[in-house]
Amino acid sequence: MKEKKHLEASCLKLGLERHGQPVLSEISCTFKPYELTAVVGPNGAGKSSLLQCLAGALKPTSGRIELDGQDAEQVPAARRARLSAFLPQAEVPAWSLSSADLVALGLLPWGRPADREQRVSAALNLVDAQQFADRPVTQLSGGELRRVQLARLLVGEAPLLIADEPTAALDIRHQLQLMQNFRRQADAGKTVVLALHDLSLAARFCDRVLLLQGGQLRAQGTAEDVFTPALIGDVYGVSCEFRWRDGVADFVPLDLL
Ligand SMILES: Nc1ncnc2c1ncn2[C@@H]1O[C@H](COP(=O)(O)OP(=O)(O)OP(=O)(O)O)[C@@H](O)[C@H]1O
């Protein structure tokens, strides 16, 4: 089957229960090609659960995910693996693979492409991790390992990229580099969905923001729509300011409410 360059993913009244507790309720939203979407919200709001449903790692309890209008549950697993690439929030390597071999796992849905080594090397370059290529992943620092895992996400050709808190372990240079990478991926036509805690990075790089609270979609829209002191103050329980300059927002949390 012809590989897709672009993919639209939708959640239709998505609901999820974990251990009998509702953690997502009636979430309806669409992720489009050329768009970088940030999923934000307090701890436990349901960001990871939503991303896991989108990636096919969790099965919704109600509602559904559609990929270009087709019910995702009807898409064969091998095909779904070529449509979306997913980086979970925390992933501890179980084996002592080299970084290059870990990155190459991101190419598995496409078999063993002839230019595998060049692709792995290019992906490691994207995250400034080429110097770790031969190093066992068990001998990397937390942020170095995260960059190698990000290279695994970026090495393939999936039109939908999903990453859960990709910047969390990274220093500021590598956070900026990574967000620029994701921006370029979206500008080239990919559908990019990131769970983020850093509201300034979300405002600066993302086209759309989904704000979750208690498993519900509290707001969605542009950063200007969603990042108001009243709404963010209410959802996170902090007084705050957004200082906008040329489309760049500095988010300043001021005090607990
Ligand atoms: N493996 C699990 N089993 C049962 N409940 C879970 C599991 N993982 C998460 N939960 C619950 O699901 C809800 C949503 O969690 P989720 O991890 O999706 O939130 P989150 O917004 O990603 O949070 P954080 O910002 O802390 O990563 C929480 O109430 C959490 O306690």
From TrEMBL:
Single annotated GO MF: ATP binding
Pfam families: ABC_tran
Keyword Lyase: no
Domain ABC transporter positions: 7-239
Origin species: Microbulbifer taiwanensis
TM helices/strands, residue ranges: none
This protein's record includes keyword ATP-binding: yes
PANTHER family: ABC TRANSPORTER ATP-BINDING PROTEIN, HEMIN IMPORT ATP-BINDING PROTEIN HMUV
Keywords: ATP-binding, Nucleotide-binding
Protein name per its UniProtKB record: ABC transporter ATP-binding protein
Alphabetical list of CDD domains matching this protein: ABC_Iron-Siderophores_B12_Hemin
InterPro entries: AAA+_ATPase (IPR003593), ABC_transporter-like_ATP-bd (IPR003439), ABC_transporter-like_CS (IPR017871), P-loop_NTPase (IPR027417)
